[in-house]
Design brief:
about 500 residues, mainly alpha, about 65% helix, three-stranded mixed beta sheet, homodimer
């Protein structure tokens, strides 16, 4: 019957099915957003059940035979636009991947994830990795089975990486993290010999409402559209999108730490600008989705670090900031502020790390995940391995599991292969920003005067509007004329921190 | 195959199906709540689409053959508890009703509703009923077809009433509204001869934040559980429930009108206490739902009027209120305040009407709906009929359509048969409250000292916990030992307003 339909008709059928699935998934995103922002305490139980139901419905809709038949038929049609063909190809790829999972495996993984998450919570309460270890061990076994289900060529971990960053693999990451070790370690060692700038003044009292207003103004200045979004408060800041016309950010405010709110606002703002820039007409289709986690992170990091921790950015904003928090900042010169917000100092917690040491946190997790998945590392040895890595790479002693191996939620969720995308994001950001500076006349002057329109327009045109049409590396090559190259980040780091620390 | 299953197993299958449907419907409620409270302007378009998708999914799940087969099989099982049997009977009734609608009719009604709603918005902008009339005419024709689809015995309007208030019919309402006319009109006429109390001081300046706090404290005092709910701001106050552990209210604050926020808080609080009191273990099943709109409204009105506009209620709260709004209220004695908040005065707008004239607004709508559905009134004559009724019953001249026939949203939504439940709510409230006063020792003293625990407990035990187990009238008879009887409202009105106006 489908054969008699025109490609146009079939494509409209496909679009309707995909948009229906997107509506259900976005409803889930709305329920999750509410869960993190406004849900009353007792509502958590039923909310979990409501999310599970929607998730099951979305899964059923996306794996039904009729969708597969339709996608296969459309794949053979040549009278579709390039974007349409790309949508079909990516949807078919996603569909076939979903269909690989036996129902029994999905159920087992779901219950293991639930158990692991609760064990992780308990382990954190007791500050004892041993409580989490048996569940993590089971999770690793399941993830190894998953690599067999998904299939891979060179390394089993590649199958998991592919979930978050299509095209990334162990061979690429080994090279990148070798570069990190070889080039960033010497830089860190040089920095360690210098006097650390003072940053105590960032921990003076910064009243909540004034911080909130300042954060909103930063978002406005960046070009975030408040008619297509809003900011709320949550325990952990995040960005969520229900469609490009409704992209929401959250922040948290610590009255004793100005930095917490400030860079989380800019970071989430970067994510949100990407989501607001995705093509509305591709709603529900792959070309309406972000390219990858790495590219998503490149957008947040570019704004947070390359722009938001630069001297020229604060040349414009610092006077206003001083005006708002007079008692805390009026005696602090811009340059002291700039140095304080760029303090490099090895530490224990990934999410609190500076721009440079951050990548050692990620590298450690990458090495561990690779070891667990290939079987060269066992979960029973994980705490020791973790602590040893922190000593070797960051020269810090891990005092307990909370500040060590239990600090991240990812493994309890079964998210293996996710961490590397954080570093890839920074490296893509440096490479993209280098190109942006070449291609946008007067970009640095614009930033120094608080005008980000040309940068946002460049990101919209070169990255946002393509959605998943290109993979990360295709996109990188298209925009910067070469594949991801760590040297851009290195040059950025040497120039910036060389200046700050007068190396 | 089902025959081999035990009743217990079948009942669990039924429960799982119903809870899945409830999860989808509650997800819709969450999306709708967000739409009225936090949705950014541009998000409206996709939100509409997302709601439509969820609605379609819920409808598909609730009308699938397998559910019907299961319900019929379970109806024949006698080894179920009374509550279980009631759930099955009500679900089968709901199912068979839904299955009566031809898909073509559902689609036609949905598109007519959409068109009528937008025409109503436009008509209001232009203050011209003629813009709305053709769409309303089509809507009435569809609702008349709906009465044929649903079936009825005595009067076609009964079929529509039954949607909102099972068991109510034209014969019952004709009797009640005859009583309203015969007994309330003389009371109104006597009141009209008295001097009207002054209420200007209610329109002094009442700062927003102080109103918000006062409203929250009223809700807390009533026993509303903020761990299972929250209050937000919306254009029109409403209560919504996602399950008994997450029942939310909204309010609006007008700094020039203290009454607006105060009684909307108490009113919505009454609705919310009902929802928080429904049995959690019946989630998704009929016995976990409210008995009817009339009973729902009885809960809000009992708190709003019988409790919240009583002298004893304000004996406790007025001192605090004066303390908060010192400059506006310190010179106003309690008795003046009490008279002002109970001012009886015929007016044009239903939602702003006092406790007595309110029922004439409802009666007018009831007469009009009955006429439209039975065909004795045409939409082209509706404006004149409306204006004439207002002159006859309330002695007010309708100056324009906005203040007349275009004031309510209900008809544009296709909600015919809804209005009468507002009056039924007040009449049930009076009858229930009379019984409560008899059965709860010291209730009036408790209220006078700000303690509502015994009242709430009585409502929980006699009404809330039953869900839909009893119809409105069954419940009324069970609790008060007689069917709905207008004389309780009349006695309440005569006593209260007789006192205020010294009749």
């Amino acid at each position: 019957m489908t054969v008699q339909k025109t490609s146009r008709e079939l494509y409209e059928d496909y679009k309707a099915k995909m948009q229906k699935i997107a509506d259900v998934r976005n409803a889930m995103a709305i329920l999750s957003w509410d869960q993190e922002t406004y849900l009353p305490e007792k509502g958590a139980g039923f909310r979990g059940q409501q999310l599970t139901t929607l998730s099951t419905i979305a899964h059923e809709l996306f794996t039904e035979d009729a969708l597969g038949t339709l996608l296969k038929e459309l794949s053979s049609r040549s009278d579709l636009s390039a974007t349409e063909q790309k949508n079909i190809a990516l949807s078919l790829e996603d569909y076939e991947k979903q269909r690989k999972y036996p129902a029994s495996f999905v159920a087992e993984l779901s219950s293991a994830t639930n158990a692991a998450y609760h064990a992780w919570i308990r382990a954190r309460k007791e500050n004892n990795f041993a409580v989490f270890e048996p569940l993590l061990s089971k999770m690793v076994a399941l993830k190894r089975r998953e690599t067999d289900i998904l299939g891979y060529e060179a390394h089993p971990y590649d199958a998991l990486l592919n979930e978050y960053e299509k095209g990334a693999d162990v061979s690429m990451l080994d090279t990148i993290f070798r570069d990190v070790k070889e080039s960033l370690l010497p830089l860190l060692q040089k920095i360690a010999l210098q006097d650390a700038p003072d940053k105590q003044f960032l921990n003076r009292h910064y009243p909540k409402d004034a911080q909130w207003e300042f954060g909103l103004n930063l978002l406005k200045a960046m070009g975030y559209d408040f008619k297509a979004g809003r900011q709320d408060v949550s325990e952990h800041p995040f960005t969520t999108s229900f469609n490009p016309q409704d992209v929401r950010v959250t922040t948290r405010i610590d009255e004793q730490d100005l930095g917490n709110m400030t860079w989380s606002c800019i970071h989430e703002g970067g994510h949100a600008l990407y989501e607001q820039g995705l093509p509305t007409e591709e709603y529900g289709l792959p070309c309406g989705e972000a390219a990858s986690l790495g590219i998503h992170e490149s957008q947040s990091r570019l704004w947070e670090n390359n722009v938001g921790r630069s001297l020229i950015f604060w040349q414009h904003h610092y006077g206003k900031l001083q005006g708002i928090f007079r008692s805390s900042l009026q005696a602090v010169p811009l340059n002291d502020f700039y140095q304080a917000i760029n303090l490099v100092q090895p530490s224990l917690i990934r999410t609190e790390a500076d721009e440079l040491t951050y990548h050692f946190h990620v590298m450690i997790r990458y090495e561990i995940e690779k070891g667990l998945i290939e079987g060269s590392l066992q979960t029973k040895d994980l705490r020791d391995t973790w602590n040893q890595y922190y000593l070797d790479y960051l020269q810090v002693e891990v005092p307990d599991d909370m500040k060590g191996v239990l600090q991240d939620i990812h493994w309890s969720h079964g998210s293996f292969g996710y961490f590397p995308t954080y570093s890839l994001g920074s490296f893509y950001a440096a490479q993209l920003f280098t190109t942006a500076k070449k291609q946008i006349p007067g970009l640095e002057n614009a930033i120094a005067s608080g005008a980000y329109g040309s940068l946002l327009q460049w990101l919209r045109e070169n990255i946002h509007r393509y959605g998943r049409f290109y993979t990360s590396n295709e996109l990188c090559e298209k925009v910067t004329s070469e594949k991801l190259n760590f040297r851009y980040f290195l040059e950025y780091a040497r120039e910036k921190f060389g200046g700050i620390y007068q190396l």
